[in-house]
């Protein structure tokens, strides 16, 4: 039991560190141009776009993996009611996750269009 908890803590630390470095990775490819200027053109909208463009493929990949795992649960259920119910729950939570993710990614676009920002 302790080995599982230690492993889960390690995974949680790794995931947390990866998520905390996402803004740095996103900002790393901004090219300020040949000569530094007082205003390098780093707007909040540009930062949000870069973060979303970086996270979107990760989200899609995670959603696909979630549905593959749910399908695998259906295949290995062998007609047992409890396993089929857990597979259905996995599909349901996968669908809910995709809907929430799409809504979360659409909020910046809705705000940008409402405020008429670039």
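Q: What amino acid sequence fits the structure above?
A:
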């Amino acid at each position: 039991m302790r080995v599982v908890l230690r492993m889960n803590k390690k995974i949680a630390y790794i995931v947390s560190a990866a998520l905390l470095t996402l803004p740095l990775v996103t900002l790393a490819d901004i090219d300020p141009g040949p000569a530094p200027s007082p205003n390098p053109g780093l707007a909040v909208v540009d930062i949000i776009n870069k973060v979303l463009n970086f996270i979107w493929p990760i989200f899609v990949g995670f959603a696909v993996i979630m549905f593959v795992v749910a399908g695998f649960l259906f295949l290995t259920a062998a007609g047992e009611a409890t396993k089929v119910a857990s597979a259905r729950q996995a599909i349901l939570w996968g669908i809910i996750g995709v809907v929430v993710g799409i809504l979360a990614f659409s909020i910046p676009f809705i705000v940008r269009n409402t405020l008429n920002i670039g």
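Q: And what stands out in the fold?
A: The chain has a mean pLDDT of 77.
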